[in-house]
Protein: tRNA(His) guanylyltransferase
Amino acid sequence: MAKSKFEYVRDFETDDSCLPNCWIVVRLDGRNFHRFSEQHEFKKPNDDRALHLMTKCAQTVMQELEDIAIAYGQSDEYSFVFKKKSRWFKRRASKFMTHVVSQFASSYVFYWKDYFKDQQLLYPPGFDGRIVLYPSNQNLKDYLSWRQADCHINNLYNTVFWMLVQRSGLTPVQAQDRLQGTLAGDKNEILFSEFNINYNNEPLMYRKGTVLIWQKINEVMTKKIKLPEETEEKEVEVTRTRTKVVPLHCDIIGDQFWEEYPEILAEDS
Amino acid sequence: MAKSKFEYVRDFETDDSCLPNCWIVVRLDGRNFHRFSEQHEFKKPNDDRALHLMTKCAQTVMQELEDIAIAYGQSDEYSFVFKKKSRWFKRRASKFMTHVVSQFASSYVFYWKDYFKDQQLLYPPGFDGRIVLYPSNQNLKDYLSWRQADCHINNLYNTVFWMLVQRSGLTPVQAQDRLQGTLAGDKNEILFSEFNINYNNEPLMYRKGTVLIWQKINEVMTKKIKLPEETEEKEVEVTRTRTKVVPLHCDIIGDQFWEEYPEILAEDS
Amino acid sequence: MAKSKFEYVRDFETDDSCLPNCWIVVRLDGRNFHRFSEQHEFKKPNDDRALHLMTKCAQTVMQELEDIAIAYGQSDEYSFVFKKKSRWFKRRASKFMTHVVSQFASSYVFYWKDYFKDQQLLYPPGFDGRIVLYPSNQNLKDYLSWRQADCHINNLYNTVFWMLVQRSGLTPVQAQDRLQGTLAGDKNEILFSEFNINYNNEPLMYRKGTVLIWQKINEVMTKKIKLPEETEEKEVEVTRTRTKVVPLHCDIIGDQFWEEYPEILAEDS
Amino acid sequence: MAKSKFEYVRDFETDDSCLPNCWIVVRLDGRNFHRFSEQHEFKKPNDDRALHLMTKCAQTVMQELEDIAIAYGQSDEYSFVFKKKSRWFKRRASKFMTHVVSQFASSYVFYWKDYFKDQQLLYPPGFDGRIVLYPSNQNLKDYLSWRQADCHINNLYNTVFWMLVQRSGLTPVQAQDRLQGTLAGDKNEILFSEFNINYNNEPLMYRKGTVLIWQKINEVMTKKIKLPEETEEKEVEVTRTRTKVVPLHCDIIGDQFWEEYPEILAEDS
Structure:
């Protein structure tokens, strides 16, 4: 059973290292989540349990993997942005993609019950992933803007669509026909005049999606210590600075976000 | 929020289609499974629960995804072989890799309790994956032989190593030193003379790993039917042919396996 | 002027090795050869000088580079097939492509006057190239058949087209209109009934293109030698076996060619 | 001869488009130019005829191809930098490489006699090429600096080496031994003390290589025109602005060059 006789097959592996000095984005999507969300009775148009679970999984990915500078999620997708200078796994594309989606998928099942309580998970879900490189900061910002604009467009549509179905009793086909060819302004108008809903007052998480960034957190802990000259332990308060993944629901298309968190795009990041 | 202004970022995605008429292998490995197996008290050198769970996940992958002709697993790794002629997702490498590892990872958590019972899963595990193309049947068979030869070499080593530690009371370092430079024959001899173990009698699953193939199964089912001319339902037996993923623990290095299952490599498969 | 400070830029080069055990085809095309052929007064529909020069360049490529098993040319294109097992330049795609086209291009100018005599070369021509991998022998044969079928279709069209222009006095647009929608049979019929030409009697080089293969040639040379016991040199005949690139104008779509030259596709070639 | 039956082979071609918004560098090297330069009696360490011919070929490449912003050459190599925003041939790597090397190679033979006069070209030379992407302007400048630093190091070495051989009568092996382990300062010292040569007075073209950039040139031409009210033609002077490829022999490592020609790196270039 000479292993060496077969080892030549390793030469068929190809080098898939990502070009240096580019942002590496891995975007993950739920597989067949339309069906999955129906089978698990997701609330329409937005299910808080599902959105929070997605974010919990994305946080786990950021904490377990290395060099992720920022992540952005909406609906059943999440994008993870690895630093330009990352040397993790020699920048091999397959490593980035598979670590992201496998960690996300196992987390989804692992944390399911924390969010869905009595709603049983019926089967293990799948996710797919892709990798894209962006050479400049502007390209990266435009990528994230593209996803957030997509979130807005879909959420506005879904909000009106499900109002028409749930409140006005239209069938899905009728609701679709009603919205055919309408512009954003038309949809806002329907929401306001027919359902008394001001779209701008809808929750930010629905309208903007979720941004995950690293932030320094000061934690005050209570610790028991025994000083040399004393015989008894005593409790003291200790302040510790930790870096944590924090979710935000804010606009990332305009400049304000990037001015507020310049470290995300900083050259030496 | 004009989405179109940002859509140019899609042009940065690259086409990663696999060369046609080649076998596509996706191999998956557990991430940091050395640590994982210790934390979850895996039995050494082989834990049946862990091996059966791996195989359950691999079966799920074969059933949920398309065009997988055969899979082979050992230890914390599994290789999935997609058919030469597969057109699934236009043969895009990223799709193959991410669907395999995400489905495997979510299944691992989902089915954990069926195999590990009271042993709690402490955190969601990660897996990595890679993709390799093999142009000829011989290349593919050599790839699978390479993995099975690897299984044999590792399992023989581990079997002796853990005997020395568990039965002879050596420390891991001492056991390692003892085995330094030994050949297969030496290891067999230690097992036999010191522990009265004939390595060839060790379970096939440990020595050969697990092969997953599709097999036609005749299922006899009981069905209630009501014939037109009768008033009461009556039970009849119905035989149904289904295709199922079946685990085998056999040699795949020699010709016998491939002669017995010629359909696996068949040109039009 | 520390070179080392800048050397990091080498990390941006990517590995473009071709998958092992595949045929590597480099196809080269003349750049803007429609214009080039007009400016250099190529005879229409086929110019023997131009075709022979193309073949001379292709022979030079086969002799100067390594591991080319067969080449096929027609019109202003040539395909070079590198052996499946070739390890030349670690199978790097860029090396294969650039060596082929640069050697071809320099040879085109170098040998121009041998074929075009007083017809001056007005400017240095350009060529483009691409690389394609074929895993199986059947794929490779189908590739070459594709190019030869293309040769046939184009040459039949061009033969009728130029007859209509040169002999019947049609304008190019009129000739094009006349041929619009005609099948092969129609074109043969026009040639025969209007110009008394049996297409099958047209030169093989025009109808089949040119195949270049390696053949063993016995050369009889006259050599002067001086035997030890003699004082004078004397002439003897010596037979030497050389391997030479030989042009053929034959069908390569059917089996006959491949049966006659089995060494081209031989596994260990 | 159904072409369509074989057309499936086109699916084996892969998309090799370069990542958008990156500088695309194609570097070309002479193949076996050590031997070539000996056979064609190049003057050592630098042959003006050969260097000027290389530059003539590079100018031709820049004029015939599209979107080349700058080129840099030394010895038997030339680097061509395509604009970040170039959409030429959909940014396909194979197109960029093969057009560059084939145009260069045919030009080399075509213009040979203009530079080498009675020195016959013995055979058609080959060139190889590679392609590298650089995401940022700094990366590109560092690439060009790397090549110019290489030029300096090699030229200083070669200048001393050939002095030792040509003037001091050392054999090549002796000269090599003498220079083993010497630093730049040592080599300058040998040149000065033994051969009375101040390296800094050596020609810039040898020390810095050749930079090719586009420059606007005002050309004054004499043109014959006939004004409507007159019967005779008369000569007038016309000033025309043309863009021309201009060679420079200057430092491109420092900032001065890039400040003088900011348009080369300009974002919208």
Summary: The longest helix of chain A spans residues 137-166.
